[in-house]
Structures are given as C-alpha cells and as structure tokens.
Amino acid sequence: MDVVRELMERGFSRVTVLDGPECGAESPRLVLAFWLYEAAPETDVPEAVIHPYYPASQAAYRAAEAFCRDCQARGISLRQETHLRLKPILNRLSFLSRGRNTLSYLPETGSRFHVQAFVSETRFPVTDRLKETEHGLFCGSCRRCVEACPTGAIREGAFEKKQCLRWWMLNGQTPPEEIRKKMGNRLLGCDACEACCPHNPPARGTQPVIPLKALITGEEDQTLPPLIGSNYAIPNRLRTQGCVMAESLKRGDLAPEIGRLAETTRSAVVREAAGNALRELGVRS
Prior knowledge:
The chain has 285 residues and is of the alpha+beta class. The chain has two domains: 3-38 and 54-120, no CATH class; 151-189 and 211-280, no CATH class. It is built from twelve helices and eleven strands. The protein has helices at 3-9, 53-73, 87-90, 144-148, 165-170, 177-180, 192-195, 212-217, 224-228, 235-249, 255-264, 268-280, and strands spanning 14-19, 29-36, 48-50, 79-80, 97-98, 104-105, 113-120, 154-155, 158-159, 186-188, 209-210. Strands 1-2-7-4 form a four-stranded antiparallel beta sheet, covered by helices on one side. Strands 10-3-11 form a three-stranded mixed beta sheet. It has a two-stranded antiparallel ribbon with strand order 5-6. It is globular, with a radius of gyration of 21 Å.
C-alpha cells in the first residue's frame, strides 16, 4: 500500500510518514496529511462569520475517517490520532517554517492548511525525519502580525492565549469585556495575524455567514455540526458567542431574542453572556 499516494487521491495535498516513537507516538508510524484551503476577504457584514479553516478541517476529518474505514476493511492498520500534540512536531519538520504568530508555514501556500494525523502498526516507508531542534522564526524584522492582532495576544517571544479571540471562542466561558468589544462578527476563527502575513497568498475564498438571530434562537443547531463538526458546534457555546457578537456589533434589534434566551436558558454561562449583551444594548436584563 502506498499511503502517501492514496491520501493525496483523497484530497490531501502533502503527506509525510514519520517514525512514531521519534514523535512521541506509541505506534511505529505517524502519518501527517495536509489539507489546503483558501482564505476569504474580510467582511463587515453584521452577522456571524466562520473562518474557512473550520469547514476545511471538517472536510479533512471526514476524508480521513473514510480512508481509515477503507484501510481497516482491507486489514491495514491505520487510525486517526487526535490526542498527540502536533505543534512541537510541526516545528521540527524540515519542509515547514514558523512565524512569529506561532503558526507553521508550507512553501508557497503559507499557513492556510489543516493537518490530519494517523498512527499505524504497519511500518510504511518513512519519508521525513524531525530536525534535532525547532525552527527559528523566518520573519526577520517583520512585526505585522504583532501589530495586527486586535487584542495584543502576539508579543515578542511569547503568545498570550488568554488575550486571543479564538481561545475565548472555544473555552466555554464568557469573555471579559475587553475581549467582547473586539469580537466583531467572528463566530469561529480570527484571521488577523494570517491576513497580514506576506508569506500567505491573497484571500480568494469564501466563508460561511450565519444569521446572528438564528444562532441565538438555535435555528442553526442542526446545520452547523456537518459544516464545522460537533465539537465546534456545541449549542451553548454557539449561544454564548452569539450574545457576545450581538453585544460587540451593537445589534439592538436582537434584544428580544437575547432577552428570551436569558429567561429560558439553563446554562449559567449563556445567561451571563445574554445579560452582558442586554446591558450593553441598553436593555434591563
């Protein structure tokens, strides 16, 4: 079996086979498959937008899942690996480089990719070895991402995750006021540090736009999991983020829906987010 060729036939653009134990995996082989996507131009539409990375990562996950089923049907050992930390591995792959924003970059396509990882007991031929040390930064004196980050999460020599918009989108908590003010129309993903990077290609893709009202009322609960995956489409997380965006965008027209949500939700986090939004919109919660 040529695992590299077969994964590329499934839509992955690059595949590398590594020695598993060298990468911290318990199986003899670790396979990394890269799925590319195109960025989308920034839009100021007052609705919820989803960064193109997330539909791409869901498409890659489904392709990987189907490939593993096919391999198992043929008696070939291959399964998806979802627990291994990939960033330290990517930082030591010879064909990748690393930016000040902590992201890894492929030649020509930049940071616009998602990685699916597999482990196997089958000893496929190793195609790459890890470097002994991590990459240095390829940025030189460029500081565009530092200056572009809306919350100052990217700093010289450090990344402050609790200042990152994306971190607050995914941690299940209500963001502090300074973060809520900067959220804008972002439901999932922030592209500020990638959009300004000269190593990334121009944005030519599209991104999903979700009506903010439908997000708050739950009308999108069934449509989002197939698009972005159930882990990202947790209903209470969507509700919380919907309230945060309504507050940030000053969508006073959504006050009735937010008020009903505050009265009916069983989630303390959602209730807090709804209350914050109502107060910012000038409505007594």
